[in-house]
# Entry
Amino acid sequence: MTRAEFLKIAGFGAFVTVSMYCLGGCANSVPTAPTNVDFTIDLTDPANSALNSNGGYIVKNSITIARTADGSFVAVSAICTHQGKTVEFDQSSNIFHCPAHNSYFSLNGTVLSGPASQPLAQYKTTLTGNSLRIYS
# Structure
């Protein structure tokens, strides 16, 4: 085997290996948003204390629950529709943000800027005393 033949075979092998890696990465599916949601959060529980202040948020059961600047509660899927990373609440802008690739979403989950192209699932919230219900 000549040196040129060896380099040709080695180069082709490297190309195949890299192609398989890239194509395998593209085949990964993004986790889906939670369905049939119905749970209650006790706002007096220290684990949920962030929700006692405007701009605070928590992630529970794959849902990002936030208290907006005006004091209302909103809940969206915590799973970014781009690649499934965890969505956070940006209190300074009053929007949801995926820090992995900088997708931004409105309070109702609509995409404001990508790379995400699909909205976040939105959930209903009802406050009764110190109990916050999150449901589909």
